[in-house]
Amino acid sequence: MNDVKAYPNLIGGEPCESGDPVTITNPHDNSPIGAVFNAAKDDAARAITLSVRAFESTKRIPAHARKKILGDLAKLVSENAGDLAELLCRENGKPIALAKGEISRAVGTLELCAEEAGRLVGEYIPFDSDAAAVGRFGLTRRVPVGPVTAITPFNFPLNLLAHKVGPAIAIGAPIIHKPSVQAPLTGFEFARLVYEAGWPKDAYSTIYAEPDVAQLLVTDERIGVLSFTGSDAVGWHLKSIAGKKRVLLELGGSASCIVEPDLPDLDFALSRCVTGAFSFSGQICISVQRLMINDAIYDDFAAEFVDRARDLVCGNPMDEKTDLGPVIDDAAAARIEKWIDNAVAAGAHVLTGESLGNRMFRPFVLENVPDGTEVGCREVFGPVVALYRYHDLDEAIEMTNSSRYGLQTGIFTRDIGKAMKAWDEIDVGGLIVNDVPTWRTDAMPYGGTKDSGVGREGPRYAIEDMTEIRTMVINP
């Protein structure tokens, strides 16, 4: 404990070590990398009270000042990119090349939020379409709903935090951040940069908390918005206890990717499908989990996909050549192994894949996976992909829609008619044409349907969900 950096809870900028210490370890080698402290209920209550008080002033911070704070925050993240990427890699096992990419994305997300801070415009509404309202007109503006509780997962501990904090600062809303208990350290380092950028300290708290304490951040009626990214079971439970506040949920899924015979570029599609299935060991909510390949090209495509999966490098996440590092913890590794075993026992065939121990897996590719197995119908969140053969696009669409999730789907085709048909008929939040569902840019509206959540991320769209329209009617 004495050999690692301590990260006290930050309650309105003030360090607090009142709770029991917890050592955070590297999932690759179990080495200790930092110490955090379990927040008490009094700590959470104090953070809420401070945020509510701060809201009276933050909602009046002018747009130019909010824009500057976000711009300065983006610069600070960029200036600290190397240290942040290394810490992120060490706490969640993300290969260092991907960790660097996440830091870069977070910078871009914050820059987008800075731009949006200056675009919070209203509208003029003439009312003369109603004879009784002739001479009157309306003005609208967007106002923040209230303080924001931001709960983030282990897999993108910085960029997904930027997607919550950036819009909140852009509208003038205080934030209480509850990071993942598996990878909290990047969030604490980010908090330091938030304060340095000039955001009021009492309007930003970061607390490491177990569920009984974290629940207070969800149930307190004074919190205006809950923005949660994580598992569907936890997310929908939190929504059920959140009361009247706005709730934004990004909950993952079992993403499909459809490969039609008229795909534009075979090599590109193969490369992207391998990346989309196994990047960060599949611990991405839009990871390709169900790869649907048309009969006409199935055998050749599947064989080459398996060969490329076998070529991926498993190893130390700090090595730039590593493609797959460990999954996040022993529980995740055990669950993945169990689900694969269950699928095989039900009739699935393993084309390639191996458990290496110590939370490491060579990529698993399965076929003939029964629908009722976990691999067939739940989110694996591991380096596992199931191949499916289909006859025509209608069948692939039906297979995709059979999932209770609806986050994103990819389709490879030259035929715009097929793309439009998929867009019309597949019940997902986003359709990615000629790329994998794992593709995302941070400006887009991102979110799902069905069990995949409610609301949208992306600075402009999150801002809409965190604000409400206030109308003034004028009778001159």
Would you write up a description of this structure?
It is built from 15 helices and 22 strands. By secondary structure, the chain is an alpha/beta fold. It has two domains: 9-251 and 452-474, 3-Layer(aba) Sandwich (Aldehyde Dehydrogenase, Chain A, domain 1), CATH 3.40.605.10; 255-441, Aldehyde Dehydrogenase, Chain A, domain 2. The strands form six sheets. It has a seven-stranded mixed sheet, sandwiched between helices. A six-stranded mixed sheet has the order 9-8-7-10-11-21, sandwiched between helices. The protein has a three-stranded antiparallel sheet with strand order 5-6-22. Helix 9 (266-278) links the parallel strand 12 (255-259) and strand 13. Helix 2 runs antiparallel to helix 4. The longest helix has 22 residues, at 96-117. It is globular and about 70 Å long.
Task: Record keyword descriptors for this entry.
476 residues, alpha/beta, Aldehyde Dehydrogenase, Chain A, domain 1, Aldehyde Dehydrogenase, Chain A, domain 2, seven-stranded mixed sheet, six-stranded mixed sheet, 15 helices, 22 strands
Summed over residues and divided by their number, the pLDDT gives a mean of 97
CATH H level of the largest domain: which superfamily? Aldehyde Dehydrogenase, Chain A, domain 1
User: What count of structural domains?
Assistant: 2
Quaternary form: single chain
